[in-house]
Recover the amino acids of this structure.
């Protein structure tokens, strides 16, 4: 994978995953009148499980991405619902990970 392709993949993947998990699923699951903890955990576990056969893969990848997902969900919560910072942080994480694996 070339440096250009790695960068493009990292940017597109981070935007897609944040829109799906932090914006889409979280908004669908989050009750409007209760604590955020249950939806933070549910969305993070789903995000982790979606990486079982991805990068990083296996159960180590599931745990690592679930923890990363929890951090991104908490970041979105702290940013009052905005996913812009989550997309940026996720893109940087993808670029670092993909750079270590493929470049």
């Amino acid at each position: 994978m070339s440096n250009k392709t790695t960068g493009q993949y990292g940017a597109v993947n981070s935007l897609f995953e944040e829109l799906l998990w932090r914006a889409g699923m979280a908004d669908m699951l989050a009750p409007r009148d209760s604590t955020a903890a249950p939806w933070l955990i549910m969305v993070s576990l789903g995000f982790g499980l979606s990486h079982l056969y991805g990068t990083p893969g296996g159960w180590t990848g599931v745990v690592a991405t679930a923890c990363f997902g929890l951090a991104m969900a908490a970041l979105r919560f702290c940013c009052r619902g905005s996913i812009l910072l989550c997309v940026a942080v996720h893109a940087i994480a993808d670029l670092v990970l993909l750079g270590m694996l493929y470049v």
Remarks:
- The two ends are 7 Å apart (CA to CA).
- The mean pLDDT is 85.
- Residues 3-102 form one domain.
- DSSP finds four helices and no strands in the chain.
